[in-house]
Amino acid sequence: MQYAVEGMHVITVEGIGNARDGLHPVQERLSKAHGSQCGFCTPGFVMSMYSLLRNTRGSPTELQIEECLAGNLCRCTGYRPILDAFKGFAQPSATSYTRETIRSDGGLECANGHIKEAKGESGAMENGKLEASGVQICPTTGQPCSCTKPGPLCATSVKNGVEEGLMSSKEPIFPVELRKHVPASLALPGTTSTWHRPVTMPELLGLKAQHPSAKLVGGNTEVGIEMKFKHADYPVLIAVTHVPELKKMEVEDDGVRVGASCTLTQIYQLLSGLADEIPKYKLSAFEAICGQLRWFAGHQIRNVATLGGNIVTGSPISDLNPVLIASGAVFSIAAESSVDRKVPARAFFLGYRKVDLKPSEVLVDIFIPFTRRQEYVREFKQAHRREDDIAIVTAGMRVWLSDDFVVKEAGISYGGVAAKTVTASKVEQALVGCLWGKEAMKMALDAVKEEVCVPVGAPGGMAEFRNSLAASFLFKFFMRVSYDLEADSPAFKHTFGQDCQSAVEEFDRPPSCGTQYFAEPTSEFDIVGKPERHRSADVQVSGEAQYTDDIPVSGCLHAALVTSSKPHALIVSVDPSDALLVPGVHGYFDHKHVPGNNMWGPILHDEELFATEIVTCVGQVIGVIVGETQAIAQRAARLVSVEYDELPAILSIADAIEAESFFPSYRGQIDCGDVDKAFLDCDHEISGEFECGGQEHFYLEPQTCVVLPQENEELLMYASTQALYHHAETVAETLGIPINKVVCKTKRIGGGFGGKETRSEFLNAVTAVAAWSLRKPVRLCLDRDEDMKITGQRHAFIAKYRVGFNKDGRIIAVDLKCYSNAGNSLDLSPPIMDRCLSHSDCTYRIPNMRARGFLCKMNIPSNTAFRGFGGPQGMLFADMWLDRVALSLGKRPEEIREVNMYCEGELTHFGQPLESCQIRSCWEEVLSRSDYEMRKAKVQEFNSNSRFKKRGIAVTTTKFGIAFTLYLMNQAGALVHVYTDGSVLVTHGGVEMGQGLHTKMCQVAAQALGVPFETVHISETSTDKVANASPSAASQSSDLYGGAVMDACKQIADRLAPYRSQSPDAPFVEIVKKAYADRVDLSAHGFFITPDVTGWGGKRPFNYFCYGAACSEVELDVLTGDWHILRTDIVMDVGNPLNPAIDIGQVEGGFVQGMGWLCLEELVWGDKANAWVRPGHLQTCGPGTYKIPTANDIPIDFRVSLLRNAANPRAVHSSKAVGEPPFYLSASAFFALKDACYSARRAAGLEGWFDLKAPATPERLRLACGRTDVESLKEEL
Hints:
Elements: H1 13-16, H2 25-32, H3 42-55, H4 62-69, H5 80-87, H6 98-103, E1 107-109, E2 115-117, E3 124-126, E4 129-132, E5 135-137, E6 144-145, E7 158-159, E8 162-163, H7 167-170, H8 176-179, E9 186-189, E10 194-197, H9 201-210, E11 215-217, H10 223-229, E12 236-239, E13 249-251, E14 255-259, H11 264-272, H12 284-294, H13 299-304, H14 307-313, H15 321-327, E15 330-335, E16 338-344, E17 349-351, E18 354-355, E19 362-369, E20 375-383, E21 391-401, E22 407-415, E23 422-423, H16 425-431, H17 438-451, H18 463-488, E24 513-517, H19 537-541, E25 557-563, E26 569-575, H20 577-580, E27 585-589, E28 599-600, E29 607-608, E30 614-615, E31 621-627, H21 630-637, E32 641-646, H22 653-659, E33 669-672, H23 675-680, E34 684-692, E35 704-709, E36 715-719, H24 724-735, E37 742-746, H25 761-774, E38 778-781, H26 784-790, E39 797-805, E40 811-823, H27 829-838, E41 848-857, H28 871-889, H29 893-900, H30 919-929, H31 932-944, E42 949-962, E43 971-978, E44 984-988, H32 997-1009, E45 1016-1018, E46 1021-1022, H33 1037-1062, H34 1068-1077, ...
Parallel strand pairs: 10-12, 11-12, 24-50, 25-38, 36-37, 40-41, 44-45, 49-50
Antiparallel strand pairs: 1-2, 3-4, 4-5, 5-6, 7-8, 9-10, 13-14, 14-19, 15-16, 15-19, 17-18, 20-21, 21-22, 22-23, 25-31, 26-30, 26-32, 27-31, 28-29, 33-41, 34-39, 35-36, 35-38, 37-46, 39-40, 42-48, 43-44, 43-47, 48-49
C-alpha cells in the first residue's frame, strides 16, 4: 500500500478536522444530522463525501451523492440521516420533495429538533424558504426549518456545496512539491514480494519478460483479495499505474481506444461525455458500457480499478466482458520478444479465469467501435443487490439491422452461466438473416434454451433462475430494440400492447427522501425528550473515536485461531511444528494450556473452549498461534497440521428433523385453551410448513479483544462485547482465578446486535489463555470472513402449522411447531425459542393455541442472539399463515389482521394482560398517514396497465415484549460522581454500541440533578466500576440503567436539597462546593430492578409491550426479480421518548436491517441443497458474497412517526424501549413483494396461495412469478 501511494498526497479523516480544533463541514453536517450511531463506518462516509466534493466541479447532484455513498456500508442508521446530512451540499430545489412533506399532517421536525404543526396542503417560496401554514422548508435539506438566521445546516449559509468561510481555512492543500514530482522507476523489495513500478512501456515489457509469472497490479482490487483471503503468493508485483501507453484514452474515427490501466471512473467519464460531440446512433455500445459501470462495484472501487485488470482476470461473472464481446471490442497485446497482436474480445476468454495472454505478454489497450445506424447494444445484469454486488447473470447483446430490418449481425454474450464468459453463437445464428420480429425472437429463445443451460448442482447454484435470466434478458433485449427501432425508423411498427412497455422501462431510482414526526418535550426546561446529538458524534466523524483494536499496547502480541475444517470428525492428530518454525511466532496453545475449565457456555457448559478429541462444526477452535504481528500469526496458523477421521454430519434443519437430532434439555411449549376441541368447531382449516433463513450480524467492527496480564495474577481486558461481566466470568473460570482479578472494559463497540453478547466470550477466553501462558499482552482481531464463519448468526427456522378459522376470518385455533437451527451447542437457543413461541401470536388474539419448540442439534457453529431474539421469526410465521387465511377466504390480509387484532386488556396466549395496548392506535395512524386505501387502488391500476412490472403494498404490525425472560437479569447498577466544579461523571453497566445509550443516560442524569446536559460525561463501561451487570441486550438498557442512574442521582439530589433550598438561585457549582465543605458525599451507587416481572413461565414475563405498524409499497420486475421499495410509512410506539432523534434512528436502522433479513441477505451453507459448497462450510462469508442493504436499497420515500400521547408508566420518564421492536416492521416490505407476486401470478394464469420463503431474494421472487420457461416467454410475444 505504501509503495502504491508514492508521489501522492494522502488525506485521512483525521487530517480534515477534529473535535478540538474544529470539524470540516462534511464532518460537522454528519454529526449534527444524527448520521453516526456506532461510528465505526462513519470515517468512510465522511471521506467518500469529502472526495466527491474535492473532485466535483461545482456542487454535486443528489443522485451523485447517493451513488457515491452506495459503496459504503452501515449496519446501524438505515442510511437516511447520512444521506440527508450530505444532501445539503447538493442544494436541490426546495420543491423536489417538500410539498409531499407538507401534505402530510401531524408534527414536523425542524432543523433544531422542535415541532410545528402543518395543516395546509400547499406552500409557496418566500425569502429562500418554502412557507406552509407557518412551517418554513429549508431548500438545502428539503426539511422543515425554523431558522431565523443562517446556521450550519441552513442553505442560506452554503455556497458551491460548502459553508462559506470554512472550506478555505480547513482544506488540506495539495503539496507544491508533489506538483513538481516526476515519477521514477521503483524496485522495492519486501518480506514476501518485490514491488516494481515501471514508467515506460519497454521497461514494463522487459520486466514481464524477466518475470513471466509476475502479477500486474493496477488498482489492487483483485490481487489484494487474492493475497489476503486466498493466500496467493506473488513474489513479484509490477504496478502498471505510471506507464503512459496504458493510460491513454483516444477518440478515433471509428471508435474509442482506452489504455488497459485506465480506471473505470475515467472510462465512464470519457464515454458518457461523448454525447455532446458525437451523433447518438454511434454511442449505443458506450451507453451499454456506462450502464453496466453504474452498478459495477462501488464508487471507491471504480476510482482505482482498471479495465485491463477486469478483462485479464477472466472472471466468468464479469459485468463488462459480455458487453465488450457483444460490442465487437478488440484487445491490443504486446510483448518484448514478439510482434504486437490484436485479439477480438469474443476469442480472448478460453476457460475458467484463463485468457489468451501468454506469460510474457501485456494487455495494452482496448478498442471499442462506434455503432452504426440501426445497430443497438444493450447491457443486462442481475445480482442479489443492485449496488456493489457480483452478478448472478450478466449479458451484453447487439444487433445490426438493414434498412428493411433484416438482422445483418448479432452479438450475444453471457456471464454467470458457465465457467467463462460465453458467446451464444447459436442464438446469433438464429437471428442473422431473419427479419426482426416475433418469429426471429422465438427462434432465438429456442436457441438460448439449447445453448445456455446451467445444470442443477453447478457452482453458484440457482440453476433454474440463471437459465430463466438468460431467456429474460434476451426477451427484454428484443422488446427494447423493437421500441427503439420504432422511434428511430417510422417504417417499423411493433405490435406490442401498452402493458408490454414495462419490459423495456428501466427503473430510474430518484434520490431518496425522509420525513420524521415526533412530539416536543413537555417543558422547555426538559432535557429528557430533546433530540440531543450522540455524545460521541464529533469524535466519530473525525476518526478520533477509539475502538478496541485502536488501543495502543506496548509489546502486544497477536493471536490467530486454528480452527476445524470439518463439520464432524474425530481429531487424529494436531502438529504445530511447522508453524512454530515461522520467525516471529511465540507459541501454540490449546486445551493442554488451560489452567482452569475448558468447558463453557452461557446457560449450560456444553461447549469446549479448545476442541480436545472431536470437532462438531467447521470453525471450531482447536488452538491459537501467537506471533509478533497479525500477519505472522495468521500465516503460521495455516501451517498447523490437523488430521481427522470424519463422522456423519447433520447440516440442515430438515436433516435434523428426520434424524430427530434435538437438544433433549429443551422442552418449550405454550398452551392456551382447548386446541383439539377448537379445531372441531372451525369453519375452515389450513396446514403446511414455512421457512425463514438466518442472518449474519455484520457488525462493522469485527470481534476483537486485548488481554493484558497484570501483577498479582490480575488481568485487564478490553473487549468489543455487549456483556462485560459475563466475559470476565468466563475468563476467570477458564484460568481458575476469582472474578475480582479480571477487569473487563470497553468505551464503545462498533455494532453488536446480539452477536457480541455470548459468542465473543470464547474468543476472549482463548486469547486470555495465550496471554496468561506467555505473561504478555495478546490481541485478537478476527478478519470478516473468519468472524462470519465461526461466531454464529440469527437462527433459521422451519415452522409446521395447523390453523383453524371461521368464515369471517376470526382465528379459532393454532397448532404450531417451530424448529430452529441451534447449531453445535445450546448457547442462547432456549430463550430465543421461548421468545419465538411467546411472539408467535404477533398482534392477534388466538383463543386456542399450542406452540412447541425444538432446538435442532446440527454440525454448524452455534447460532446466537440477534436483534429480536427469536421474536421476529415467531411473528413472521403468524403473518404467513394469516396471509393464507385471507386468500382462502377471498379477503384482503388487512381485513383479517384487523378482525383478529388485540384490544386493551385482552390476554396473550401465555396469559399476560395487555395494558396500555397501543396496537390499534399505531394501525389506524399508519393507514391514515400512508393513504393506504388510495394507494392500494393506484397499485391495482398500475398493475392492470403493466405486464412485466408489478407493484405491491402491505401493512403489518408488531408487538414486542420488553424484559429479560430470565428473572435475575432484570437488575442494573450505576455509579454517579459529582465533582467540585459542578461536572458529573456517570458510570453504568451498559455498553454503548451505537444505540445512544450513553447519550440518553447523560440526559437522564442531567435532568435528575438539574444541571446542563453538557456537564454530564460518561467515559467507559468497566466491571470494576459496576459489578455483575447484565448484558446490554433485550432492548432493556435504557430502562434498567436509566432507573439505576435516576436512583443514584436522586440520592445526591436529596443530599443537596437543603443547600438548594437555602440558595435557590445559586449556580449548581456553588451548591456543590457548599455541600463538599460540609463533607457531604457527592457520589452515589444507584440500583434498579424491573418491578413485578416474573421471568419466563410466570404470569408477567414482560414488563410491557412495544407496538408499531408499517406500510410499504414496492415495485417488482417480473422478468428478473429485481425490486425497489417505493415508500415506507412507520408509526412506532416508544412512549415518551428519552431522545426522539436517537429513537427515530433506531426505528429506521431496525427497519432496514430487518428488510435485509427478509428481502436480501441469504446465508448459503454447504448442505444437500447446496452440494457445490464444501460440507458444513459457509459460502457467503464476506461482503463479496453476503449482501447487506446499501443506501440504494432503502425506501425511496421513508417516513417515520413516533406515536404521540402514549406515555408508558412502567419505564423511566414514561419512555419505552426501541432497539428491537421496530425490526419486524420490515415484514411490510416482504408482504408487499408477495403482493406484487400475486399480481404477476394472476397475469400468468396462476391463482391461489403460494409459499414464499424468506428472504425474498430475486431468485425466489422471479420463480414465484411463474412462467420462467422459454415457452412461456414465447407466448408473451
